């Protein structure tokens, strides 16, 4: 009986120990989880208004990565986006606004020009390109109605110009000789008019022209040659026979394309395909002579979208009575809309297209410049329609797109502007030697190519740079042959039109 209480006591002790252990583990996990959560949220916490830079004594609004200026941090440290330290933004630089401010003298030297975004009433039409073609509805054919032989060919080659009524070919028709001789015999024999009229009807049935029959009564001589002429002034678009060739009834000898009217084929962009209707007005200007204008209305929309140009074709007739145009000419076309449309316009030269998006550099009220992503619409002359991203009255940079590097990487716009501003402040512009000023620092070689060397370098105070990893150009592909990845080096560089270029690289330690 005494064993049962003893067993119960032992079990109670073990159960209590297990509960205490579980509570301890849960508490540790909860604490660790909260610490990780607080650490992850720290970068996005609101910046402190009382932070003061101990080195400069200036009030710090926040820290940020210049490559991602819209992300703010409340403490200094390493950037989560790039291999570089976060940089402070001071209160005396502006009220926390993004962008960069460039000295007015530097703006003048760089040729920066501004334009104002404006809302304007424009026609609902659009610009397009058109080409002239033969008017196929006015093409004529020259055919033979009898069996014969080409005695002489006046049209020598396709695309030869020809006047109306000009000879195309002379045809020898042997079958015409017998009915004509029969008619002359009946006439000489004094036969009555009924037989003569029957003979004439037989000659007409054999496609002998009335002119030859009349000449037969007048001259009394049979004719076996007929000259086929052009029914229209234009060009010989097709020539299907040669001298001496035999022709059969109904065979086409040549095709004549008239030039008094031409077709204008307008290439409609796919984005405008649904807005184009027959009857819309078209104003065309000859690309080779801007003073020559042509007008008309779209007659029909041709079915199908071109798989290569992604355009829809519209067709209309234009007058060419002066024969000044020929097929294949290029015309600038303005297709008129049904009514005016209010559009927000910006100069086309202010829009930077990177391939994935369109960007403009906007000037803020405090004079700072920053990129803004926009959605663009149609081009209206020298302006571009902006659907979103700008407001009426905004000021944008219209020239000076050198702010974008050769790869058009918008992430480097503001750092390059900041570097240019700091460099211009550090280098006096009054001396010729300022253009050749050099900068130096120490860093680790990360990568070596034929065109540049990438360093993880220390801060460059003269340019206002923090520690970062970036590439510097080599003066020549074979420059610095002994520099290898992993070395710690002291290097000197200068600013050039192509970016920052190395002038000296000296190892200061062994391979890391």
TrEMBL record:
<feature type="domain" description="Heavy metal binding">
    <location>
        <begin position="62"/>
        <end position="89"/>
    </location>
</feature>
<dbReference type="InterPro" id="IPR051909">
    <property type="entry name" value="MFP_Cation_Efflux"/>
</dbReference>
<feature type="domain" description="CzcB-like C-terminal circularly permuted SH3-like">
    <location>
        <begin position="345"/>
        <end position="404"/>
    </location>
</feature>
<feature type="domain" description="CusB-like three alpha-helical bundle">
    <location>
        <begin position="175"/>
        <end position="224"/>
    </location>
</feature>
<dbReference type="InterPro" id="IPR058791">
    <property type="entry name" value="3HB_CusB"/>
</dbReference>
<dbReference type="InterPro" id="IPR006143">
    <property type="entry name" value="RND_pump_MFP"/>
</dbReference>
<feature type="domain" description="CusB-like barrel-sandwich hybrid">
    <location>
        <begin position="140"/>
        <end position="257"/>
    </location>
</feature>
<protein>
    <submittedName>
        <fullName>Efflux RND transporter periplasmic adaptor subunit</fullName>
    </submittedName>
</protein>
<dbReference type="InterPro" id="IPR058792">
    <property type="entry name" value="Beta-barrel_RND_2"/>
</dbReference>
<dbReference type="GO" id="GO:0022857">
    <property type="term" value="F:transmembrane transporter activity"/>
</dbReference>
<keyword id="KW-0813">Transport</keyword>
<dbReference type="Pfam" id="PF25954">
    <property type="entry name" value="Beta-barrel_RND_2"/>
</dbReference>
<dbReference type="InterPro" id="IPR058649">
    <property type="entry name" value="CzcB_C"/>
</dbReference>
<dbReference type="InterPro" id="IPR021647">
    <property type="entry name" value="CusF_Ec"/>
</dbReference>
<dbReference type="Pfam" id="PF25919">
    <property type="entry name" value="BSH_CusB"/>
</dbReference>
<keyword id="KW-0406">Ion transport</keyword>
<feature type="domain" description="CusB-like beta-barrel">
    <location>
        <begin position="261"/>
        <end position="338"/>
    </location>
</feature>
<dbReference type="GO" id="GO:0030288">
    <property type="term" value="C:outer membrane-bounded periplasmic space"/>
</dbReference>
<dbReference type="GO" id="GO:0015679">
    <property type="term" value="P:plasma membrane copper ion transport"/>
</dbReference>
<dbReference type="GO" id="GO:0060003">
    <property type="term" value="P:copper ion export"/>
</dbReference>
<dbReference type="GO" id="GO:0046914">
    <property type="term" value="F:transition metal ion binding"/>
</dbReference>
<comment type="similarity">
    <text>Belongs to the membrane fusion protein (MFP) (TC 8.A.1) family.</text>
</comment>
<dbReference type="Pfam" id="PF11604">
    <property type="entry name" value="CusF_Ec"/>
</dbReference>
<dbReference type="GO" id="GO:0016020">
    <property type="term" value="C:membrane"/>
</dbReference>
<dbReference type="InterPro" id="IPR042230">
    <property type="entry name" value="CusF_sf"/>
</dbReference>
<dbReference type="InterPro" id="IPR058790">
    <property type="entry name" value="BSH_CusB"/>
</dbReference>
<keyword id="KW-0732">Signal</keyword>
<dbReference type="Pfam" id="PF19335">
    <property type="entry name" value="HMBD"/>
</dbReference>
<dbReference type="Pfam" id="PF25975">
    <property type="entry name" value="CzcB_C"/>
</dbReference>
<dbReference type="InterPro" id="IPR045800">
    <property type="entry name" value="HMBD"/>
</dbReference>
<dbReference type="Pfam" id="PF25869">
    <property type="entry name" value="3HB_CusB"/>
</dbReference>
């Amino acid at each position: 009986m005494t064993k049962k209480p003893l067993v119960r006591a032992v079990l109670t002790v073990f159960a209590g120990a297990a509960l205490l252990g579980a509570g301890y583990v849960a508490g540790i996990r909860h604490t660790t989880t909260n610490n990780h959560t607080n650490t992850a949220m720290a970068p996005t916490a609101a910046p402190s208004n009382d932070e003061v830079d101990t080195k400069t004594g200036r009030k710090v609004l926040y820290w940020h990565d210049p490559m991602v200026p819209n992300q703010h941090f409340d403490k200094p440290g390493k950037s989560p986006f790039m291999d570089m330290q976060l940089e402070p933004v001071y209160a005396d630089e502006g009220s926390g606004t993004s962008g960069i401010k460039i000295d007015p003298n530097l703006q003048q030297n760089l040729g920066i020009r501004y334009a104002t975004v404006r809302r304007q009433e424009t026609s609902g039409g659009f610009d397009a390109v058109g080409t002239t073609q033969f008017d196929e509805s006015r093409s004529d054919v020259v055919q033979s109605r009898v069996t014969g032989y080409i005695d002489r060919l006046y049209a020598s080659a396709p695309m030869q110009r020809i006047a109306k009524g000009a000879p195309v070919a002379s045809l020898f028709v042997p079958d015409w000789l017998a009915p004509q001789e029969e008619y002359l015999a009946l006439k000489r024999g004094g036969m009555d008019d009924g037989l003569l009229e029957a003979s004439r009807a037989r000659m007409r049935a054999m496609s002998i022209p009335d002119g030859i029959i009349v000449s037969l009564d007048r001259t009394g001589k049979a004719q076996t040659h007929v000259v086929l002429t052009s029914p229209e002034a234009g060009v010989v678009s097709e020539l299907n026979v040669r001298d001496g060739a035999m022709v059969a009834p109904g065979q086409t000898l040549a095709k004549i394309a008239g030039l008094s009217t031409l077709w204008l084929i307008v290439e409609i962009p796919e984005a405008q395909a649904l807005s184009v209707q027959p009857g819309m007005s078209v104003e065309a200007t000859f690309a080779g002579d801007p003073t020559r204008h042509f007008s008309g209305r779209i007659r029909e929309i041709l079915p199908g979208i071109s798989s290569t140009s992604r355009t829809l074709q519209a067709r209309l007739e234009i007058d060419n009575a002066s024969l000044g145009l020929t097929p294949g000419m290029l015309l600038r076309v303005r297709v008129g809309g049904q009514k005016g449309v209010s559009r927000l316009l910006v100069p086309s030269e202010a829009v930077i297209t990177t391939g994935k998006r369109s960007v403009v550099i906007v000037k803020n009220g405090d004079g700072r410049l920053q990129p803004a992503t926009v959605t663009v619409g149609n081009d209206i002359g020298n302006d571009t329609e902006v659907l979103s991203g700008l407001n009426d009255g905004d000021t944008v940079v219209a020239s000076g797109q050198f702010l974008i590097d050769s790869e058009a990487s918008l992430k480097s716009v503001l750092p390059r502007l900041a570097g240019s501003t700091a460099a211009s402040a550090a280098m006096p512009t009054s001396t010729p030697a300022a253009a050749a000023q050099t900068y130096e620092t120490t860093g680790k070689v990360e990568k070596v190519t034929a065109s540049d060397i990438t360093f993880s370098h220390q801060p460059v105070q003269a340019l206002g740079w923090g520690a970062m990893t970036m590439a510097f150009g080599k003066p020549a592909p074979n420059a610095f042959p002994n520099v290898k990845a992993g070395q710690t080096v002291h290097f000197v560089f200068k600013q050039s039109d192509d970016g920052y270029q190395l002038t000296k690289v000296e190892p200061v330690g062994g391979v890391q």
